[in-house]
Amino acid sequence: xxxxxxxxxxxxHNDWCPGCGDFGIVNAIQMALTEMEIPRHQTAIxxxxxxxxxxxxxxxxxxxxxxxxxxxxxxxxAKIANPNLEIIAVGGDGDGLGIGAGHFVAAGRRNVDMxxxxxxxxxxxxxxxxxxxxxxxxxxxxxLPTPNTNYNVNPIGLAIASGFTFVxxxxxxxxxQLKDLxxxxxxxxxxxxxxxxxPCPTYNDINTRDWFGGEDRIDEDTxxxxxxxxxxxxxxxxxxxxxxxxxxxxQKKTQALVKSMEWDSKIxxxxxxxxxxxxxxxxxxxxxxxxxxxxxxALQKISKNNAPITNISQILDMYxx
Amino acid sequence: xxxxxxxxxxxPQGSGVETAxxxxxxxxxxxxxxxxxxxxxxxxxxxxxxxFAVRISDEKINSSIKGTNMLIxxxxxxxFRHADDVLENGIIIYDSTLENMKVSxxxxxxxxxxxxxxxxxxxxxxxxxxSGILELASENGVSVHSVSFRSLLTELSENLENPRxxxxxxxxxxxxxxxxxxxxxxxxxxxxxxxxxIFSKKKSIAExxxxxxxxxYNFASAKFENSQFNFPSKPISxxxxxxxxxxxxxIGKIISxxxxxxxxxxxxxxxxxDFLERNEILQINEDRPGSTLVVQTEDEISAIGMAxxxxxxxxxxxxxxxxxxxxxxxxxxxxxxxxxxxxxITLYQRSGPSTGLPTRHGQDDMLFAVNAGHGEFxxxxxxxxxxxxxxxxxxxxxxxADVYQVPVIHLLDKFIASSVSTCKKFDESKITINxxxxxxxxxxxxxxxxxxxxxxxxxxxxLGLENGIFWNTGDESDIHGHITEDPVVRVxxxxxxxxxxxxxxENIPEDEQIIKHSDGEICIVSWxxxxxxxxxxxxxxxxxxxKIGFIEIKLLNPFPKNLLKKYLSDVxxxxxxxxxxxxxxxxxxxxxxEMDPDYYILKFTGRPMTCxxxxxxIKKVVNNDAEKREVLTYGA
Lengths: 321, 636
Prior knowledge:
The complex is a heterodimer.
Chain A: H1 22-36, E1 43-47, H2 55-58, E2 62-65, H3 71-81, E3 86-92, H4 93-99, H5 101-110, E4 115-120, E5 123-124, E6 130-131, H6 155-162, E7 166-171, H7 175-187, E8 192-197, H8 209-213, E9 229-231, H9 246-260, E10 267-274, H10 281-288, E11 303-304, E12 307-308, E13 310-311, H11 313-318
Parallel strand pairs in A: 1-2, 1-3, 3-4, 4-8, 7-8, 9-10
Antiparallel strand pairs in A: 5-6, 7-10, 11-12
Helix pairs in contact in A: 1-7, 4-5, 5-6, 6-9
Chain B: E1 4-12, H1 17-30, E2 34-40, E3 49-57, E4 68-73, H2 76-82, E5 86-95, H3 111-123, H4 130-139, E6 143-147, H5 149-159, H6 172-183, H7 188-198, H8 203-223, E7 240-244, H9 247-256, E8 258-263, H10 270-278, E9 281-284, E10 290-291, E11 293-296, H11 300-311, E12 316-321, H12 323-338, E13 343-349, H13 366-371, E14 380-383, H14 387-404, E15 407-413, H15 414-417, E16 419-424, E17 471-473, H16 487-507, H17 510-513, E18 514-518, E19 522-526, H18 531-543, E20 549-553, E21 555-557, H19 561-568, E22 573-578, H20 584-593, E23 599-603, H21 611-622, E24 629-632
Parallel strand pairs in B: 1-4, 4-5, 5-6, 8-11, 8-12, 12-13, 13-15, 14-15, 19-20, 19-22, 22-23, 23-24
Antiparallel strand pairs in B: 1-3, 2-3, 2-16, 7-16, 9-10, 14-21, 18-20
Helix pairs in contact in B: 1-6, 1-7, 6-8, 7-8, 9-10, 9-14, 11-12, 18-21
């Protein structure tokens, strides 16, 4: 029997602020899971700490709400031990690009076949609105005592430089596009990163829904707002690395980096970069452990009637006097 | 014991001191002797002083002694540092070209050591040269033999018609050990056998080493008179292994079914992960090959995070680290605690605080293991006393983790890690695997991960199991694993988790909690690797006609206070022996038994205790001549 979106909802009360961009992301994840028809017990959501950390409790699949900054470590451990699982890690921009930045970079190097979604709102919401790593230098959001003194991290650029092989951006008020991006990310063979712009209605009074929608800049002719958000798929931008060639790779990475620096007047969403020619971690393991995928750690038998079945006699003989 | 002989070789790091000691250990183990060797080295890749002391005996030995019977030196620093430590009637074999080297020529000496050495030589009216310190050794009754290592190489190179050998100073290690073995008149085929087995993967290197070794062996047996240290071969009485310090936990993890290990490089813990990765493909009886996934992570935070993630899939998972790395794991340990995650953290302690003495020994982190992580949650802290114990204990700690659904910190240390010793072959038939309430199948659609049960332990699902969906969170949670701040549920959940501590004490067999090695009105209480020197010191005291009790506490958290109370009921004098400054076990005893050990024998130089100095200190206690706090300081 096909599952419905409702099957992926839990009855846990969602205590995000009214109007929070996070709602759109949870809905998009639930819609994507429904559409992909992956059995619920084969999927796990890992989350970090903060408002976005609660995400795993709202989705009716395995949910592991981890520690601040550490979500990728838990998620990769699970995926490596059982590559049959479908794993989506989620967390805030402070979680992933501040306290967890080291894990972000290291995860890129491994290219484990899973998805990482950052709920990017440029503030630390749950601790009352401090500047997060994606807030621009000099900006002063509502609760900051003085303007931000740090330059911002470029999540898309950092992901590409770190080795993520699928890098995309979504917008939490475009649920349809977001759902498609999540599906593309999950289906990607390798580590997929999805940066989701997600206005915090309570603390970020600069990058608001109206601001993204261009309500502050009305076209003189049409008298309509000129949205800042636009979609890469509506342009002739081609994010895919088609063949294994240095020039091709450099060109695709460079154009993605240039695109990632667009902000203020034009903010691109969609897939920036996609490269399935880099071996996923699973392949790297099968190269040395041939039956890794059929017989991964989680599925191995280790005992029979409480006695071990691993044969260590060869090892012991090596050290026999 | 009729044979008790200690041999030492020293040299700059990178000069093959370890290989030489390995050859020596193999030779005597093949001759039927018991071995106990220890390695000391600086935190350095090349050039700083390292040495290896190997003790052999016809009886089981568990520690080193003070001093050495034979010293092999091919650099000046080794002579300066150890010549004075060679026992009466001992032997020094050294490279003759070093004789005129001065203390000031050795650039790797620490300033303070240089001053101490100078004043020693001054006080004895000796020149500040290698010859000076060797004179001192001679006066101590040591016979000193000089050999030109260079000339040996030149001669060998002519014999083999290979001019390259002339300059191969990297062969000094093999020359040194072989000269000593020639003097000791061991059967020469044992030397060849040992070298071939050490270099079994590199045939041409093995050949060159064998020629070099035989050449030096023949030279020495012709040149030197028989020493009084010629020991005949003996039958090997039982199946004996020659093991390095990390073999116990490494092979223990393999047989126990640990299939995931994440780690970040750190001394002295890394050898274990390296071993697991080198042996990553496993033979499984009546099944396809298995494998251990070994993941080198970006830091220790990631190492424990990955191990937890893996454990959630039902995989037996662990990480292995030392003090600084374990500090970084504290937050995740707390997460594992509240989420009832079976997890093994193998903690090879070293001397702190901070980087401390990064390559030296210390039992510094027991109280930290007991208390690490914020908030209150159950965990097991379990200590092994030697390599062989650590094999069987590794199987135990994985069972504890699974059965009680708690993180387990398995304590070892640098003393164990850098020891090489003979022991009885690990017995697989003694290993059992108990996965506790881990489920393979769930039929009901109403599964709750944290369901209340009479023993506080809930049936455990795993990621991927049908009908077994659960949630985890670092927040307090309800039976589903969803966040709650309800005060009533909070009390229920705290009770559920914490009640496990009593359950653990009631269910782990007594002889796994505490080992009573011997009885005595004067009784030592200790834990971990202090075990070896204590056992040997007690044997020495026995020979003096003194009976000393020894109680080794293996389970350090939850603390088996009632059992210990029972064991101590007839004891008049308690001595706490540990390799740390504060007497950490003593503090647990004060806290749990409301009594203070009568004496503390402590060592925190970064060097392991020797049975000799322990024997001396315990004797002082027996003679009512000891301070409350006796501090041991022997060792370079």
